[in-house]
Amino acid sequence: MFENFDAEILARIQFAFTVSFHIIFPAFSIGLASYLAVLEGLYIWKKDKIYLELFDFWKIIFAVAFGMGVVSGIVMSYQFGTNWSVFSDKAGPVIGPLMGYEVLTAFFLEAGFLGVMLFGRSRVGLGLHFFATLMVAFGTLISATWILSVNSWMQTPAGFAMNDVGQFVPVDWWAIVFNPSFPYRLTHMVIAAYLTTAFVVGAVGAWHLIKGTAPRRAGTMFSMAMWMAAIVAPIQIFVGDMHGLNTLEHQPTKIMAMEGHFDSHPEGAPLILFGIPNETEKRVDYAIEIPKLSSLILKHDLNAPLDGLDAVPDALEPPVTIVFWSFRVMVALGFAMLGVGLFSLWCRWRGTLYENQGLHRMAVVMGPSGFVAVLAGWITTEVGRQPYTVYGHLMTADSLSPIAAPAVAASLISFIIVYFVVFGAGTFYILRLMGRLPRDPLEPLDEGPIRTSGITPASQPGHGGKHAH
């Protein structure tokens, strides 16, 4: 099925496939870890056991998602060695230490406190358990920080020099870590993770409200999720705008592809809402556009000139069609999230937040929207960087291992089969967990014996009352 593809395109497809699976799990676990910390903090503050019920409900889902995120992430380092060894050799002196710091700080922190968070509340006490939950949440944020620093350096490289054998060597670690796009990219990604989690939690709460089961528990998680959507979605749109301005400064060709600007516009560029990019004829067919609005958004001036891809050599153009549509999917979902958040505020003001079936159905439909938006944003970022791995310095074609196409195709097919089986089963299990009701953690289980022997002491004849003596 891949006989017409060369090794480079197959390696790119393989990396895109595996990282697409991987990115959705950290995006969920980053937000969910912080949500768990908020739930436990509210329980300590208000002494309302409903927050403890929700904590125990979501911590199991977090554990499964966290595990799948770790497993799917291991494959990335495997590909750096097999498919992208030239990139690893040339960029390794810079990205290697950063990825090592992620393991030494974030992963050790998460792994060290995860067991306490999942199983240790009755053993270490509530205060120390809350500290462990905070450390897990903090660890996920540190992990995102290091990984986004690596990726941002590849987008906007700084603080390096080239040695005699063509390697990137560090000169200024502060400039490397805090490269020009890093603050915008990190903020945008973390907020995206929080919104992703909010809409998953909101969808689960809305689902149980529609079914009429556990209305107080479902209503609590739904209300918290809608607050997050209403407050954070507009912040994300603002941060996205700032990130776009930074991208225009440092990666203008990516902006040209996102906007569909094949031609330069010396007197103000239109905002193309929809259309079909025609990369052969260098135009957008059937374009629906608003005159000069792109110049207003990107340069805050209706008449500001904007360069197009006609100012860029064809060999340095990114794939316009993919970037054009992925960007629009991300933006459309961002505004849809904002719409749901604003609608929830209106329902809250009207006192119908827990009764409005229309809002609940919208929340269920929007449940996976965060994952789709994260994937669309990642595609926009990574495909828009092409044809470079290190923007402006190292071409993707020059980063490939000396490997034959059939070998890459074989591993790609293996990944596809294994990923859909393993992560499909994991996702199905998570959905099953979400369909269950949050349980009171202080109530005994009613699912039969809990001793491994199959018999509890209280159920044996002669135990209890005067017969026990």
UniProtKB/TrEMBL annotation:
Region ranges (Disordered): 446-469
Subcellular locations according to the entry: Cell inner membrane; Cell membrane
Alphabetical list of Pfam families matching this protein: Cyt_bd_oxida_I
UniProt keyword Zinc-finger, yes or no: no
Membrane topology: Multi-pass membrane protein
InterPro entries: Cyt-d_ubiquinol_oxidase_su_1 (IPR002585)
Keywords: Cell membrane, Electron transport, Heme, Iron, Membrane, Metal-binding, Transmembrane, Transmembrane helix, Transport
Bilayer-crossing regions: 20-45, 57-78, 98-119, 126-148, 189-210, 222-239, 322-347, 359-379, 403-431
Family: Belongs to the cytochrome ubiquinol oxidase subunit 1 family.
Protein name (Swiss-Prot/TrEMBL): Cytochrome ubiquinol oxidase subunit I
Organism field: Peteryoungia desertarenae
